[in-house]
Amino acid sequence: MVSSDASSITLFDVKQVIRNVAFETLKTTPTRLLYTPTGILCSRDVQVSHFMNSQRCKRLVSLCTTRSRDQQMDLIRTDVPKHFQYATLSHRWDEDAEPSLRDIEGRPIYGMSAKGGFGKLQAFCRVALEWGYLWAWSDTCCIDKHSSAEVQETIGSMFAWYRQSALTIIYLADVSDTGSFECSEWFKRGWTLQELLAPKRILFYTQNWSLYRNLSSLNHKTDVAVLEELMMATGIESRFLSDFYPGMDDARSRLQWSSLCRTTRPEDIAYSLFGIFNLHLPVLYGESAEKALGRLLGEIISQSGDVSVLDWVGEVSPFHSCFPAH
């Protein structure tokens, strides 16, 4: 309810507007996020509740009492999203040790054993907090993998989630503090390709959670030396590494980038490219890798008209004789 005074909003209305803007902000973020100070997994409702009870929200409400209506709205729409900035984790999975949603739900992760993936998750949240982010997302435990609808939504949204993250922390478990990341297995995995291209800001961390080469750069995508190494490791031009946009442009190159990547689930080699091509296709776990790739290639040709993607060598796909099997 807007007050009769068109130039201002009542205290009650200010809080309601703040709440509405908070939910509006969270519509495009991951469904669940880890609260880095405590390590507790929070739903969107809990995230909003946390903000509404925070000192930051109280300061915002106080500032709004001295502003005009337009100034109040500008202030709210500027300040609220800052609270919900989050960091994302990119890493190689250890299938036997990664914590799931059910492992951490309702429990602070810092109180758990630091073995295996739990230690990695704890370190990630601590690093995110050190960079000033209250919220963090990891694909291992922030998704209900028993819900097919949620898995479909996640795969369809993951590129956007990494793109709008304030920071993506890339953990290279097989790179020592003095090592080079060119030989890391991280660069050979299917899902990590979009996790490299989508974020606007990334930082590489080595196995002991030290910044790669102790570089002081705030963004490794803007570090000339790191970009040179990334080009050598991936074969991707620097212009794509530093400023990538999803879509059909140069579709052939995008397929070539992923040609040597591997995924645990064969179908994922196609699903992991949906975001890179800005495609929203059904995720059908259990289908063959050839069928998943065939659906992807068919859609790329249909939308782009680029038949150069049919210029390939190797085994013929049973899905269509014009398509490669791999």
Automatic annotation (TrEMBL):
Pfam families found in the cross-reference section: HET
Domain Heterokaryon incompatibility as annotated: residue spans: 86-178
Source taxon at top rank: Eukaryota
InterPro entries: HET
Coiled coil: none
Protein name as annotated: Heterokaryon incompatibility domain-containing protein
